[in-house]
Amino acid sequence: LCIMSALTTIIARARLLEPNGALSPLLQEIIRNCERRNIRYDRPLVHFIMNLLSLDPKFELFMETVSADRKNHDDFVEACCALLADDRSPTLLTLRMQAFFLDNFFDKDEIIEKHARNLQAKTFALTKEIIDNDVITKDEQDEVFNKVIQDIVINMGLGNPECSDVLAETMRALNSVMSRSDKAKFVTLERKDRLMALKDIREIVAGIRIFNKHSGNTANGMADLPKILDQSHESTKSILQITLCEIMDKVNLLTSALNAAIAYDLRNRSIITLLPENITADDVETLKDLLIMYRQHEVYTRKLIDELANIKLNIDSCKQEYEAKLLRIHEAVQYRTAIPTDRVFPKFSELTRVWLQFQNFIFLLSEMNQISNTLTNLTERCVTFDDLAYRLLGESQIQTDVDRLNKVSAKRLTLSDPKHCEIVPYEDSMQIQLLKFCLWHLAEGKGLLMPGSIELGVCRVQKEHYLFNIPEPVTFFDEDPNKYFFKIVETARKKVQLVCLLNVYDKVQSAYSAPRSEGFQMKLTTTCDQEVQTDLHPIPSNIDREYRWNVWDYRREAIRLANIRTKRTTSVQTLESSRAIPKATQIYVAKPQTTQTRVSRSTEMEQRRNGLGLKVIEPSAPSPLKVYALTLAQTSRSAFSRNGERSN
User: What distance in Å separates the CA atoms of residue 215 and residue 332, rounded to the nearest whole number?
Assistant: First the structure.
């Protein structure tokens, strides 16, 4: 079963995560729309969603008989962008979960190889200095072996390479393996031979340090990996079990709420949804999507728990081998003062290999914890709908899957006149389709996930096995199985997250009305970004800078030239302005000055004199105005008299 599960995962990854070359023009358009709308995306998720949505024939992406329709392609792009837009919806979070798990779970050999590559990349420069440098003097030789000590500590995981005690103890172990002449011979080896010798030295020195730690001689900086593995296993197991309990609480609530909102119309062979007040059909669909998300999280968590159990078996086997290797070394060195190196060194190398397996198990547990944390973070990002679920539940009680199935444990599936199906008892070796969910609820409930009961029996059709939740619908299914298969396919096209959850990719693809032929290419009328680099022109170019391809450009130019004829252009040139130099002007300091603007004047009045009681007025000098008036009068009379004489 584990091999089948791994094979299924590999096939699903190849089909759903790999980019489809025929859809690449639409991919570019989806990315442009996402950037224009500020929608966050990552390419693997976009590939995943496109491959799932392309299974729906309503977009007509792969139909040979239908001409290319731009509207269908626009609808496909809009459907992908709509899924990516709401990053807290149950549907998108389920798709993210599926894409992440398919991409990361769980090839143990690949994880170990990835860690080895990372460690090799970190120590590449140090290893290169060891095997490339030419050594002449004794100081250079000592410097090379100081680097060898650091290389052994880092690659074998023997402690902190910056701790002097760790380096000193490793140096003592190295000196017990290599004499001064051996070191001199090592630095004279060719590059390839020196690298092989370095790998052997790593294993032997690390084995000596591990043996010394077990013997109680020294243990500076070395971790007790078997003890750490036991603690890590228990911690990971506890976290996964707590996570599974939290998931099942949500699953039981949502399943009970949806079960309370449906009724069976067996006469019409359908399921009726009973909507309480203030709850719409969209709310029920949202709860279905939420249940799908938690069921998917449950499936992945159970897979992690199963994988953890397998790792625990391997850890126990490795611990037994570790103890056996140590015992053999103790037996080989006990009560002996000298031991041939060809007998004891291979034992140290074998012990080191077991030690490295312990390190690999630690990396596997760390990777498993990271996967679990990522899945949990995705479900926690979803908008909570607990209040809606409790309102839909009403006065009904929350039931577990076991409680729900115990109600029908006494019943059995029966067919009085089998046409297409047969009823068989359940066996552990059976591979139940649709993840053991009830086929009838899934088809008639439009994506309603209700667990099937193995106590009722198993319905076998076309060499596949299906479960039911209640016994009556098996008669309907026996009459026309393809009808219900088609309904499940239609549901999976609308709720694309069901394709991975129920593993129905093959059924959905085979139900496509016009499957792709081997050499068929999708008909597209889309645009794409393209860059073209041409060679130099074979004939000399003749580029007219004044060329206008539009007649209106010529008209505007003619108007501009006509307006210029009415203008006058003037210019001013100052003399020798090009040789102008800075000049300074000296002015006098301001002096205080005053201005008289007013003249004081007076008028002399007549003086009065008294004489003998009589008032005598003395004539005064005529005023200038009076003199002017008299002069003017005389001039006028003389002119008049002359004119009179002339007239006579």
Answer: 14
Distance of CA 375 to the CA centre of its chain: 14
Query: What percentage of the chain exceeds 90 in pLDDT?
Result: 35
Give the amino acid at 374.
Answer: T
- Cα 636 to Cα 161: distance, rounded to the nearest angstrom: 138
The residue ranking higher by pLDDT, 531 or 258, is 258
Distance, in Å, from the CA atom of 494 to the CA atom of 280, rounded to the nearest integer, reads 19
How far is C-alpha 244 from the geometric centre of its chain's CA atoms?
26
Residues 469, 421 contacting (CB under 8 angstroms): no
Residue 40 amino acid letter:
R
As a whole number of angstroms, the distance between CA 484 and CA 165 comes to 71
Handedness of CA 442, 445, 449, 454 (dihedral sign): negative
- How far apart, in whole angstroms, are the C-alpha atoms of residue 164 and residue 149? 11
Find the Cα–Cα–Cα–Cα dihedral 118, 119, 120, 121, rounded to 10°: 50
- Name which of 525, 532, 519 is nearest 26 in CA terms: 525
Q: Strand, helix or coil at 265?
A: strand
Least confident of 13-17, 298-302, 360-364: 13-17
DSSP 612: T
Share of the chain above pLDDT 70, in %: 80
Total-model pTM: 0.75
Q: What per-residue string of b and e applies to 8-35 under the rule 16 or more CB within 10 Å gives b?
A: ebeebbebbbeebebbbbbbebbbebbe
Per the prediction, the chain carries an average pLDDT of 82
- Domain boundaries in the chain? 2-85, 123-215, 225-393, 403-510
Residue 613 confidence (pLDDT): 46
DSSP alpha helices (H): ranges in 445-601?
Answer: 473-479, 481-494, 497-502, 505-510, 551-565
* Nearest CA-CA partner of 170 in 207, 197, 138, 196: 207
Query: What CA–CA distance (Å, rounded) separates 45 from 312?
Result: 33
